[in-house]
Design goal:
single chain; mainly alpha; Lyase 2-enoyl-coa Hydratase, Chain  A, domain 2; 2 domains; three-stranded parallel sheet; 10 helices
Length: 201
């Protein structure tokens, strides 16, 4: 493959993985068995990571003569201490579940896939019960704040909340709490409408 073609393919792969990070709703990884190379790229781009006790993580690229180039080296240092990251990236060794939990790569370890999936679905349902604009704004703010100063991030979320008109969701949440029932929120508009240039009525 020509160098330019390889470069374009790499950019396409980077964009694909970044879509997980840029999705408006949180993305959850449920990991069983080997999570190597591209698997680590994907997992580190998600919001929450859970794994079974037989899982392991490996920055495999170094073992095949290349530097990882689709997101692992850019994202994992935000999750795991730098000294550990450098050891994993330079050696290509396996990162086992207990170590991954200790250093913050995963949220929880499970004995079986069934137990993991039950917990992941429970967490997903809990997140889905919240206002979609509030969840999207929280993810947007966490991601933005990670890459900007505190002052910039505070200004960003103030603008975001007011631009999105979160009052309706707040009213629905307070009303549901007062009535001791689950809130009903409006769905967010599909992103495709914005991509196609359609203006919502």
């Amino acid at each position: 493959m020509r160098s330019e073609s390889a470069y374009r393919v790499t950019l396409d792969l980077q964009h694909t993985i970044s879509c997980l990070e840029k999705a408006r709703m949180p993305v959850i990884s449920a990991i069983q068995g080997a999570c190597i190379g591209g698997g680590v790229d994907m997992a580190t781009a998600t919001d929450l990571r859970y794994c079974t006790k037989d899982a392991f993580f490996c920055i495999q690229e170094i073992n095949i003569g290349m530097a990882a180039d689709v997101g692992t080296l850019q994202r994992i240092p935000r999750l795991v201490p730098e000294g550990i990251v450098r050891e994993l990236a330079y050696t290509g060794r396996r990162f086992l579940p207990e170590e991954a939990l200790k250093h913050g790569l995963v949220n929880q370890i499970f004995d079986t896939k069934e137990e993991m999936m039950a917990e992941v679905m429970s967490v997903a349902k809990e997140i889905a019960s919240k206002g979609p604009l509030a969840i999207a704004g929280t993810k947007e703010s966490l991601n933005y704040g990670r890459d900007h100063t505190t002052e910039e991030a505070l200004n960003h979320i103030a603008l975001w909340n007011n631009a999105m008109g979160i009052g309706d969701e707040m009213s629905a949440a307070f009303k549901a709490k007062a009535e001791k029932k689950g809130p009903e929120f409006e769905d967010m508009l599909p992103r495709r409408k914005y991509l196609d240039g359609e203006i919502p009525s």
